[in-house]
Design goal:
Helix content: 25-40%
Number of helices: 12
CATH superfamily of the largest domain: Zn peptidases
CATH architecture of the largest domain: 3-Layer(aba) Sandwich
Strand order of the largest sheet: 2-3-7-4-8-17
Number of strands: 19
Bound molecules: zinc ion
CATH topology of the largest domain: Aminopeptidase
Distance between the termini: 31 Å
């Protein structure tokens, strides 16, 4: 998912990796990455032309087979793991190395598009841009993972203890069936890199969490023509409540609460006895859930229509990936690597939610998580979604060099 990006200032980081530096480009690696590009684009066409919406078991199954086979070809031990209630399964690959650090690369392979979308607008390339459903979000990202692991293998990079690859089939619908696996695997990792698409040369160092505020009103039905005074109008009460509850957000904390769905009554001649509303809530601070619930509980006590019952419940969806020094530090390492290519990377905080929220544990501050590692692209979730093919080789270079760098015992 991708909406507004907020530039996040990067805290000055000093550390072993940053101070020793590696200004010299690894030309052989960049040449190898560039060589893989035509094959990468062919694979991207194959994946984009298979519909794999979150509910499309058949399409997800085909992509799953592709990803599993590639991981096997790379020498990984591969497991296919069911992810109920999701329609697709998770593809989990593990490679053993010779070092001490556990590193996981992960991304989803479902899209927001339905069956028939790929036939309507199949993969196509115009100049340096590739188009098609899920081309950037996140089929391009899945291939960055596979090709970077391939480059690392070719170059004998095996300084990690384990290198885990997780492809999940349900991110676009909240990762209901994969979130527990993400949490469990992440708890054992030193580093988790996530391959959502950045809009430009960026990486994501924080994302918002998501919740819903559910509001409901119980009133009393009555004939709107002959006895309106005998009813308790739930529509009027919920309107009153929404006006009262419109400022639950806290701009200073980055919390937004936006009322987006309202339902009441379905016949013009009945005073409605039920009404409900939903607000979309985004937060970067988890304690905001309890704060919003407490504030809302207080506010709804004040009613306009006597005799109505009002209840409000904050329902927690995806946790935030909170801004933290370790992710800022890792972004600085990524930037240092990009500088070898004469480029730079900007760390950003995103207002949408991703699986980074399940990977990162704010209590322990572990593992070190970095998102936005995928192919550069924009207009995602729309029919204009595109991926920047010029970003393929630099992004492969970045992940391969990170695998080389982070796997060293002295990289912390
Ligand atoms: Zn995505």
């Amino acid at each position: 998912m991708r909406k507004n990006a907020m530039l996040t200032l990067l805290a000055a980081a000093s550390c072993f990796i940053c101070s020793t530096g590696f200004a010299q480009a690894d030309d052989a690696l960049m040449t190898a990455a560039n060589k893989k590009k035509p094959e990468f684009v062919r694979d991207l066409a194959t994946l984009v032309n298979i519909d794999s919406g979150t509910d499309d078991a058949k399409g997800l199954g085909q992509v799953e087979t592709f990803l599993a086979q590639r991981l096997k070809d790379l020498g990984a031990k591969v497991e296919i793991v069911a992810a109920p209630p999701s329609a697709g399964k998770m593809v989990l690959g593990t490679l053993q190395g010779k070092g001490t650090k556990n590193i996981m690369l992960m991304i989803h392979f479902d899209t927001v598009f339905g069956v028939g979308e790929a036939a309507k607008r199949p993969f196509r390339v115009e100049a340096n841009k590739a188009f098609g459903p899920g081309v950037a979000d996140a089929k391009g990202g899945a291939l960055i993972v596979l090709y970077a692991v391939d480059l690392a293998r070719e170059r004998g990079i095996d300084g990690y203890k384990t290198l885990t690859v997780l492809f999940n089939p349900d991110e676009e619908k909240g990762s209901a069936g994969s979130r527990e696996m993400i949490r469990k695997l992440s708890a054992d990792q030193d580093y988790v890199l996530i391959y959502e698409p950045p809009e430009a040369e960026r990486v994501t160092v924080s994302t918002n969490g998501i919740a819903h505020v559910n509001l409901s009103v119980k009133g009393l039905a009555s004939h709107a023509g002959s006895a309106p005074e005998k009813g308790r109008n739930a529509a009027i009460e919920i309107s009153n409540q929404i006006v009262q509850l419109k400022d639950l957000g806290d701009p200073a904390k980055g919390t937004t609460v936006s009322w987006t769905v309202i339902q009441a009554g379905d016949r013009a001649n009945i005073i409605p006895d039920k009404a409900s509303a939903i607000a979309d809530m985004r937060m970067s601070d988890l304690s905001e859930i309890a704060r919003v619930q407490a504030d809302a509980d207080k506010i709804v006590q004040k009613k306009l229509i006597p005799g109505t019952e009002v209840s409000v419940k904050v329902e927690y969806g995806r946790p935030p990936f909170s801004k933290n020094p370790a992710s800022d530090h890792l972004a600085a390492v990524a930037d240092k690597i990009y500088k070898e290519l004469g480029k730079s990377i900007v760390p950003v905080g995103m207002r949408y939610g991703t699986d980074a929220g399940f990977a990162y544990n704010p209590k322990s501050g572990k593992p070190v998580v970095l998102d936005g590692m995928g192919i550069v692209g924009d207009r995602i979730h729309s029919s204009d979604e595109w991926a920047d093919l010029d970003s393929v080789a630099p992004r492969l270079y970045l992940t391969t060099r990170l695998l080389e760098t982070l796997a060293k015992p002295d990289s912390e």
